[in-house]
Amino acid sequence: MDERQQVDLLRRYEPIIRFTHGEEFFPMDAEAYIRACSLWIKRPGEPPQEVASASQVTPETLAAPIEESLGAVRYLKFTEPLSAAEMAVQALRQRRKGEPDAADFQIVKGRLVRVGYLSRVVDGLFRVALLVRGRVPGDAAAAASLGYRTLLEQGHRHVYHGRVVEESGWTVLQYWFFYLYNNWRSRFSGANDHEADWEMICIYLAPDGNGELQPEWVAYASHDYTGDDLRRHWRDPEVEKVGEHPVIYAGAGSHAAYFRAGEYLTKIELNALAPITRATRQVQRAWKRLMREPETPAEDAEPVLAIPFVDYARGDGLVIGPGGDEPWATPVRIDETVGWVQGYRGLWGLYTQDPFAGEDAPAGPMYNRDGTVRRAWYDPVGWAGLDKVAPTAATLELLRRQRQQLVDHRTSLRAQVTESTAALRGLDVQATAIRTQPHLRSLYAQLRQKITQQADAIAAIQADIAATNALLENLDHHAAHLQAGGGPPPRAHIQRAHTPAASDQARSGQVAELWAAISVTVLLVAFVLLFAFNPRFLPVWLVAILALFTFIEASVRGTFTRVVGSFATALAIAAALVLLYEFFWWVVGALILALALYILWDNLRELTRSWRA
User: Fold this and answer.
1) What's the CA gap between 229 and 298, in Å, rounded?
2) pLDDT, mean over the chain
3) Is 188 exposed, middle or buried (0-12, 13-18, 19+ CB in 10 A)?
4) Among residues 121, 374, 438, 588, which one has the fewest Cβ atoms lying within 10 Å of its Cβ?
5) pLDDT at 455
């Protein structure tokens, strides 16, 4: 496939992106960004040094090979701090031109009211940590917005970077979207801000019965989702399409891709809290087994102690793509032959030295932040969990080969059964012949042991044959289903789906919002007051306050009845354990007496039946 054919294929299926009202940054040409940046390097133990100014950096110079000391980090830098006067001019300019500002974006339901109390505590600690860890300066977003508008005034249009990869029978169309800035935290109360942002989706094509490439799967990169959960079948109703163009709902500020419009609760778990989450999950599973409540894999996949953020993918803003508010410009084709793609392993924006890396800029489309190659680049099929899935047209041929292998395997097993059965019968004849000979007792015991082992081996082979027969039967049913035009369920592979909040969950009362905002502070203040004025009874009061907070939380979240029921069950179990401890030997004696009476009753019943007979 030559370059012209690749571009035509990319344009045929190019996506439509629906943004949220209030979004400031849209896909642009990465090379225009490179030319507007300066290049810096941060060596261990040294302050950052400028390697090349904005007028000196080009895609060609960025791709030039460079040798550096271990631990050195190269990064681009687009923004410079704005003065107060420049900030005021920027705000006035937005108002005059009617451009969206922070006041235009409306939050219907706060993020804290959507999660439990423990997550709010972790969130508070996370925000305090922002004060001491590396982060993007507060005026960087305004400076980036000003610089982005300057680039737009110079004639830059919305563009994506396309790549075509042929792997394992699939033709993969990769659409890479470069955004100048991620302002999720500063504008939309999200997790982080960082200069530059690379997002990507993949469309997976395969030849049909006539050899024509047809789309079968599509995968959207989105936060912490991986593997099978990233992709949807092309005929899945969740995949919205306009003609042959899939629709992406982009998260406000984060630019993460979603299949449906809505508000998505994203929970980010810190690695240090993972052991606590695992222990909590074990306790919850034990409680559910005790209460005989159903368990779901999706619940187990959700972190317990996580920081809650809302990704607003409403789709009520600018629409870019075929039939939208603005079309795509000619795509930029990228692969390993493009210098800045393959040659530059550094970061694409400010390096804040954030220990969590959330505020550091990302690397390019080919690399991770540590310079290793992204799996989405070197293995786009396996990245979406498609390495185990065959294209539809190839599935019947694969079924035929699998069936033939199973038939050959069954034939081999039957031959083993025939041979082993003959040997087993021979052993039985020998054992029968010497069974009555006392002086051959040792040999007889050996033969009986061999007979038992041989019989067990034959039974295992027969079980394997039965399993093979069942598998062959189901393969035949599946082949008939495919030949009739059917296919596997389009959503059977999904373990944790991207699910937006329901419309009735997106709103909440002012009391619940207020409680979510003040609850952590109230608890901390109460703890300090108790410690200062009555430390002797601190444990008792702390338990009482936690119980009170639990009931208040349940009341404002509409789960009061369920919490009261669980609390009553826990009290009943505790009371039973106390009674068992206090009257242990009485309980043991009562159980023994009950057992004796049951045995007596059962024996007498059997005796009376025999008398009647």
Assistant:
1) 11
2) 86
3) buried
4) 438
5) 96
